[in-house]
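Because discrete structure vocabularies remain unfamiliar, we first show an illustrative case, written as a sequence plus integers encoding its fold.
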Amino acid sequence: MSGWKRTEVRRGREYTVQPVSAASAQKEYVCPGCGGTVLPGTAHVVVWRADGVLGDEADLASRRHWHNHCWSIA
């Protein structure tokens, strides 16, 4: 991962948000916000729950790659 992690709150839940630069984005992912493809070479964010309800390991396993715009309007 390439950017500084931060914590954000959405709908009363805490999430860890990790920016990924275009240079570091090497795989293809499906954005849960729009269902579209996050293509390699596209700057985006990786998001996972930060509250540890199911434990850190489970939270990390459920992380998802979002388009920056999709996460900003989520």
